[in-house]
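Hey Z.,

So I finally got round to the D-mannonic acid thing we talked about over coffee. Here's the setup:
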Amino acid sequence: MRLSAATLHRLPASVARPGYPREAVTPGIVHLGLGAFHRAHQAVMTEAVLAAGGTRWGIVAASLRSPATRDALAPQDALYTVAVREGDDQRLQVIGAIRALHVAPEDPEALLRAMCHPAVRIVTLTVTEKAYCHDPATGALDEAHPEIRHDLAEPGRPRTAAGFLVEALRRRRAAGIAAFTVLCCDNLPANGHLLRRITSRLAALGDPGLGAWIADEVAFPCTMVDRIVPATTDEDRRRIAAGLGLRDAWPVVCEPYSQWVIEDRFPAGRPDWERAGATFTDDVAPFELMKLRMLNGAHSALAYLGYLAGHETVAEAASDPVFSAFLARLWHEIMPTVPAPRGVDLGDYAARLLDRFRNAALRHRTAQIAMDGSQKLPQRLLGTIRDALAAGRSFPCLALGVAGWMRYVAGVDERGRPIDVRDPLLPALQAASAPGLHDARAFASRLLGIEAVFGRDLPRDGRFRSAIEQALARLVGEGARAAVAALAGTAAAGPR
Ligand code: CS2
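And the result:
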């Protein structure tokens, strides 16, 4: 039997479920990007708001690409399970915060109508880095991007997140309906500013007046979002079904930790997300920098190097003593570039990260985090390196992380097996890899030429080039685990 409104009463008492009347909930938020992260993070925090009586904050959720999540959740009345896991423990909660589902490419007009509803006061986004169609090195809108070209030619039938925002804001403005607040929840630097920049630019290309109005009048608060939410597997589905006594076609699995720091700028009002543990502040930047550099930077370095060393999951890699010693050194390189947010001790933060990475109840695949590296590297590793260079400090662990990405995108692992490299810049990565790895210096040079990733400054910096070339030569010559061990000051021969 399937999870749905009609079967909720069959759940065992241990499973939390909506205790509020779902029918009374009205939509106040449209969310773009119906992935696992949103469902385990913002939707859970919003569930607490609804449970406390904030019934005007129901979520209308849209996928911008695939119908798969909608197809899984629609027969379940948009109900789904969040499984919070640590050790052998699994806590289950059925979430009811999502009240309607859209698949943008099937019916863009229906999504635009939802976005224009006067009761909708916030549009939130988790669409992943690449969906912003920006230049990762500069943060500017990529005006040559085919989907952006499409949205300029046919603004009434948009495809991109920015295209939907522009058209919905245009219609609201024309109809005299107050603008919604736009809340970017992706791991991008100064994410609110970035989204304002690309949205107002896209609008200005069609109508300069609209572009200026969006830049000046619409609020785009910055946020730092954090919860580790790996892709759901069939094994997860089985274990969750056993706990529910019902089948859920698409539950999500996550760690207990959850953090959300939000810039408090919501002219049209907002839910009381503090109730669920969110922090409102007037300056998100220090939290965001800490999280992007220390968590995501370490995640990416661990993903590339761990994958190459044969570790399938983050927990496996972070429990390998060679890698945990490497992580300690890597954090040591990162910390001087991160001003500690008020009340946070960076050493404690790093120690907590190591525990979170080692949570073996999550099977967070290194290959999942390795995806879309061209979009992630700038804010996760390269900004940190820029700061280290400016301060005259060496950065061998960060350089090895970047070299790990280069070695990974070459597309063949250390045993000669193909790597399924997924990245929007794949053609450029393949072109750089085609002549082979035997000349590490030439290979590094070809990748460093990708300006959207490295900008113009880094490839011109001799210290940067030589750090990367050295790291890559070692990685190719000795293999990832030995290269990591050498930097970590441990013996690669130790237990895995
Ligand atoms: C990960 C993030 O997939 C990735 O690139 O680094 O999704 C990470 O798990 C989250 O940002 C944690 O908050």
